[in-house]
Amino acid sequence: MNKQSNRRLLLLSSILILSCLSCKTSFDEINYSDGNADFTRIVAIGSGYLAGYSDQALYREAQANSIPALMAGRLTLVGGGYFVQPMVNVGDGIGLNGNKRRGLITLDASCNGQTYFALTPPGAGDVSNYNWLGNSVAFNNVSVPGTRMADLTDQSYGDPSPFLGNPLYARFASNPGTSTMAGDALLSVPSFFIVWLGMDDIYDYAISGGEEGKDSITDAAEFSSQFTSLLNSLTAQNASGIVANIPLPSGFPFFTTIGYNDLVLTAAEADELNVLYATVDPSIQFVAGKNRFVIADSSVATGRRQIEEGELILLSLSTDSLICYGLGRTVPIPAQFVLDADEVFEITNAIGAYNTAIQNYCTTNNIAMADMRNFFNTLSTGYVFNGVTYSTEYLSGGAFSVDGFYPSGRGAALMANQFLRVINSFYSAKIPLVDVNKYPGIAFP
Amino acid sequence: MVKYKIRVAGIILAGLIVRLSPLHAGGMLTNTTSASSAAMAGTATGIGSDVSSVFSNPGAMTFQEYSKISAGVVLSTSSTSFLSPFAGNTDDETGMAIAPLLFGVYKLNDKMAVGLSINTPFSSRKTWNDNWTGSYITRESVNRAVCIQPTFGISVSEKIGIGVGAVIALGRDYKTRAMPYNSYLGPINGSFESKGTAYGFNLGIFYNSSEKFKMGVNYRSALKFNIDEGDAEFSRVPPSLITAYPAFISYSTSYSLPSVITAGASYMLTHELLVAMDFTYTGWNVYDKLEYEFADQPDLNFTENKDYKNSFALRFGSSYLISEKITVRGGVAFDNSPVPDESMLPDNPDSDRFIFSLGGNVKLNEKIAVDVFYQLENYKEREVSNTELRFSGSYKTIVNNFGLAINYQF
Q1: Any chain A CB within 8 A of the CB of B321?
Q2: Residue among A387, A396, A432 whose CB faces B86 most closely
Q3: Cβ–Cβ < 8 Å for B215, B48
Q4: Would you tell me how many other CB atoms lie within 10 Å of the CB of residue B155?
Q5: Of 2.30.110.20, 3.90.180.10, 3.40.50.2300, 3.40.50.1110, which CATH number belongs to A42-104+119-252+341-438?
Q6: What are B58-103's pLDDT values in tens digits?
Q7: pLDDT tens for each residue of A108-127
Q8: B186 touches chain A (CB under 8 A)
């Protein structure tokens, strides 16, 4: 071999080596598309679930990670505009009872030495958040914790006078006492709407343990007609959008954490209780192992009975009252912490009727529907995202905040993804989903 | 004097094995088991002229003219990019690593030889940034086995040699990842490290058909690691969870690395030009399920489903004698991935790959020669979805290997 070919070989090898030392593996950015929807002006209309209510309060970090805010963050990639929310002040925010956000603490129950998690005391929230934010901008998130269907068109709902309206709406109503949420939702002339309504019309009742009065379930026909007129006002402006339906109680830790037969007794404890009840109420009996709790029930003569399977005990019942104060054993669990069979039936019935109305409206008017009822069912059996399993287990499930009803940041991200998934398929769009695991979950103390 | 220096170098390199990180090859079975074969895309089994035959086919040891020792080093850079449907592109942070090579053959007489090889036939390693989209699956992962192989070779006829060796494999399995529970500071960090020794054997048969044509078969047995004392550490644990996630806890696990059988042949086309071919079949189906058991805390038990399938590699190599002193080498190979789509994870982002190599040998004097090589491993872009952990996306990987070995014959 001559010198020339030697050189040629050397050159060739150098080129090969140099060419791949600078080889980059990085992927190009993906081209996303808005399909046949227009996201330039988004409006979200709902209650606590869309407002970013979490940990029993409205606070800034949770608002920043509200379901529509997470969606809007993704929609900016396909021409989505600014998403302005009525943010509360930095700090612990304010809840529907004037409380601040609640966190977790560990308690060592002195009665039996068991360690368990409890919520921080419901201290006072930052009432300066009630101050009116003015009306120089039209907000894109017109969602107010506690909102029921009828509140949307009620002028007094934004009245700041004590006990008249909802101060969480009054703070950002365009004209407090005169404007309505339904009207304010149209101020930004939305091209796309995200609607999740009807939750409070049913769950106010469920969370209160089946209290009638202001918490009673809104009649399904009434819900349907108000829902239709709200949606009509949006579509009349040529907006398209997405609507969520209502999940069942079995999809929330609030209703599933304390099982009906979670009263675990030793043989000795069971015997002792049986002796106690033998004279006063022999229908109540205990065995070693799992037992049904004793609940208050005014419809039976003794005023108490053992809970049946399918009836629900609420998370508002404090853990230490079960562990330390004999609730559910010698003292019946008060009715405000229980949904009995009739109440559960009423709730699931209403959810069925609401969901039919929602589904029908969407089908008729060619609007996308996010099947949250189905998603919460899936979540209750475990939903894996990039190696993390989310569920409806209280705290360890990660998807719900410490109140057991409203989502954590990650829960909001999971739900935002359900909306985005449906938008992608319904509007032939290509919008990336949210990276759930980077948002805040439950912070253990 | 020269002899002394090389011996020192050999000792230093042998010492490095325990301290230095292994190769950064994406696939766990490396393509850089010696500097001479790496230059020819891994062909070696049917060549038999290099001292690294002690590893690649000890049946050839007795056909070598001299006793030899070779000490070398491999530098590897591995870059992987992952395209997540949620987080876009992430580049890994694995960077460069170094691994030693050491081979020696001592001819007892014309018919018998003893030898020793130390290299890293199994190695994978990936590092991703702490907060990347797959952090709950892996942050850093190392899995390697350094093999020490004392070997005996014997000629059973003029043309057939057999070699047999004991394999002492020093395995290390290390991984860190975020655990699913968080404190105010972020997720709990978990790290799991096990070191274990496995024993196996290798067997090579070499058929020295003629000056021009040679062939051979080499078999290395599977290596089973039983780990009794793996060390798990959990950090950034919130006080309420310290019982569930103790700072230190031990675990047991076991895993097997596969048997490898290779058949190869070489032919001298001219006095200067040699061509060679190898076919390798690797019994990866032994790498199916890794169970981690925490006797003191069974809630921590977890299983990794690997479900690897048997794989093959086909290699072509060539060498050309330019002058008395200089040989150039080159090769190309196809390495088939054992990792199925459903179980692939970013701790070992494997894929079918093409390997291109270049290198050569320079004789500095009658006793000393230097091998160099460069190898490019180009992994086929692969879009997969791990069904169990719901982790989906596309991977692209490129590996650059550089190597140098100094050979001394006596």
Answers
A1: no
A2: A432
A3: no
A4: 20
A5: 3.40.50.1110
A6: 999 999 889 999 999 999 999 999 999 999 999 999 988 889 999 9
A7: 766 677 778 889 999 999 99
A8: no
